């Protein structure tokens, strides 16, 4: 496979920017836990669907995490990077394992749900590090991850029609 | 015939604020050291188990805010998030262990979690964004640094374009006003009327920026030098 | 192929080049000392012979059989309708086109001492070409890519800044420059790499008259010093004072020598559907009293604005870039809140939710609004959202498509149309909802004059027949002079009646 082009890299960068912008906008206006996963999943999947490179979504996640750190968005400081990169890696693995993923609502929803559920791992690891009670860690991680998965699936479901339109326009 | 600007316009005059070489490197090292220091502080919070230790760490964080000449008020939005987190964790502990047994450890864990986040927040809030991007540029490959810096630089332009598309679509009947979006039935309008045109625009924008960069020989050589100013 | 409305003049080729001793004064625009116009042996900067190019995945050539020879110190201008391939030709000369089908050859391009090519190209939109946040870093961008020693950069950057007359410190932020200054900054960022030929794509398109005047002065000074220019401009009338050789690229992609002069819009031309005016009728659509709007930093963008627009009036608001025209329109649409004063639209404070269906908006680059699969669906979208019945919708869409002369494109994907056609689809989709007030924020900048004239006639017709009130903001007063009932000029935060 040829090296990722500058245009593709910039597009992935813009997808990362959209993730951050929508996080900022949603945080201001809604304030519902996990809702940011809607736009995060949507743009991570769009990034991978538009740029068919193995690490496309991971690069987007890396950009988004780094920029979030630089812009001071969300809590977590340097750990923010993991929050963005983990779901992005799941999207890349999903796209590699399921080649027709972007034509199927079901597969997109499945991959989005799996990727969004990494929120469970983030929370679990953080809570373990601060020595929280093991029973409560599970409950806390579940409370954090459940809405994220629901919103992530909603975001994922919009991806196939958008990709289909972009293809019909000749944009990708 | 090769036209040289020096020939065309005579000797250049020195400009106000002509940069000295090396400013950027010193700046990057200072920001890097600050990041490292605050990361160490964050990791200390993970390992601290006693309230005395947490008090010490809180004191150090507050002192840092004072050193950087920021009041605690600048973290007000994050404080809301921490409070919400505290409510959830303490509630879970109380549900599991009861009021007496659960409240203190729940509050301690929340406090500890907050202290792992605060140093990162201090870093991003007290360091100018161009400085942070510059520091990243010093450690990541130049192409990645260029992409990141360019995407961040174009945020205002992207926001203007999003705004134009949004406002135009509102008057074409798209149900994407804030109140409309409280109803998930209208979310498809948000995706198709706003997100889709924005994605197409960002693809075109990526192409135009690439062309502009290549017109000035970006990517011609494997390495590049660096403007000595800020 | 020459459009019927145009006047085709004979090629004006000037074999004279100016030689100078390379000391040029930006302020006077003259090459100081002996600027002598004399015949002499001249170098060819670039020579194009029988060149044709087709983009990848297409079989049709975008430009065909191009023959062009640019000599030192000359300024060539290629005009032609939007989408005729002007930018493609510029990119071909610079070597920036993707690998496609090519015939013929481009010769004469050589390498500079730094290892780049001796051709610079300034693309259409300066906003997108500025890649750094400070003036110094922006100009040095090309030098960084050519691995020029950092110690040598400040002097070269200083020279380039001086050449374009931008007397600003290196650390000044690029975001604070006006559009004209940004354009000259981009020019400097190419000059710093010592090109022999500069290609400028639509230099007049984005700029207000004042910015353009300063740019022309810079180009003249550089020309006098021996720099060659190739301009691509659909309306070269703004640039006549610097052009030596005129060319015309037709819609088939053929380049012909000659000055293609666009017809000037005449609102009173007999037979023109826009010749009649409805003028003011009963009922006030817009009433603005002592309006002040402030920016994010709290300083006023404009203050104490007075504006009254009656139903059926055509209003144009002129002004340089950044004078607040867009903000005024956004305020009328209810998207920007007034800091002081009153705004009434249809007798009420403007709220976007309540104005839906009554107000139509077209902002800059309206083709960006397109998202449906076919042109038909695109035009039908507002009718669906406003709850029109299917039968009524079909007849309305057909009416709008034929009115905008795009009836034959109904089943096409809007994204595969030409630049001009996309504009027409966007306009049709806004007009389909039968708005009573149309707010236009320079949406047709970049369109050629014949397309603009067609749109003006269409709007005039809607104004006459349906009493559509139109408020149009643009930055070139001469473009639509005489078309409006009321003309205003925005300058230094105030609005002035221009003429009536």
Structural features, described:
The complex is a heterotrimer of chains A (172), B (230) and C (500). With 172 residues, chain A is mainly alpha-helical. Chain A has helices spanning 6-29, 36-50, 56-71, 80-97, 105-116, 118-129, 134-157, 159-169. Chain A starts with 5 loop residues before the first helix and ends with a helix. By secondary structure, chain B is mainly alpha-helical. Chain B folds into two domains: 24-131, no CATH class; 154-215. The two termini of chain B are 35 Å apart. Helices cover 72% and strands 0% of the residues of chain B. The model of chain B is unreliable at 1-22 (pLDDT under 50). Chain C folds into two domains: 7-261, P-loop containing nucleotide triphosphate hydrolases (Rossmann fold); 284-499, P-loop containing nucleotide triphosphate hydrolases (Rossmann fold), CATH 3.40.50.300. Chain C has helices at residues 86-94, 126-129, 135-145, 153-163, 179-191, 209-224, 325-332, 352-355, 375-385, 390-403, 419-431, 449-466; strands at residues 7-8, 17-19, 24-25, 30-31, 36-38, 44-54, 63-71, 75-79, 101-107, 119-122, 197-201, 228-232, 245-249, 255-257, 260-261, 284-294, 300-310, 314-319, 340-345, 359-362, 437-441, 469-474, 486-491, 494-499. In chain C, the strands form seven sheets. A six-stranded mixed sheet of chain C has the order 10-11-12-8-13-14, with helices on both faces. In chain C, strands 20-21-22-18-23-24 form a six-stranded mixed sheet, with helices on both faces. Chain C is globular. The model of chain C is unreliable at 1-41 and 267-275 (pLDDT under 50). At the B-C interface, helix 1, helix 6, helix 7 and helix 8 of B face helix 2, helix 3, helix 4, helix 5 and helix 8 of C.
Concise structural overview:
The complex is a heterotrimer of chains A (172), B (230) and C (500). Chain A is mainly alpha-helical and 172 residues long. Chain A has helices at residues 6-29, 36-50, 56-71, 80-97, 105-116, 118-129, 134-157, 159-169.
Note the topology.
The complex is a heterotrimer of chains A (172), B (230) and C (500).
Chain A lengths: L5 H24 L6 H15 L5 H16 L8 H18 L7 H12 L1 H12 L4 H24 L1 H11 L3
Chain B lengths: L4 H5 L13 H25 L3 H17 L8 H51 L2 H11 L2 H12 L1 H16 L16 H29 L15
Helix pairs in contact in B: 2-4, 2-5, 3-4, 5-6, 7-8
Chain C lengths: L6 E2 L8 E3 L4 E2 L4 E2 L4 E3 L5 E11 L8 E9 L3 E5 L6 H9 L6 E7 L11 E4 L3 H4 L5 H11 L7 H11 L15 H13 L5 E5 L7 H16 L3 E5 L12 E5 L5 E3 L2 E2 L22 E11 L5 E11 L3 E6 L5 H8 L7 E6 L6 H4 L3 E4 L12 H11 L4 H14 L15 H13 L5 E5 L7 H18 L2 E6 L11 E6 L2 E6 L1
Parallel strand pairs in C: 8-12, 8-13, 10-11, 11-12, 18-22, 18-23, 20-21, 21-22
Antiparallel strand pairs in C: 1-15, 2-5, 3-4, 6-7, 6-9, 13-14, 16-17, 16-19, 23-24
Helix pairs in contact in C: 3-4, 3-5, 4-5, 5-6, 9-10, 9-11, 10-11
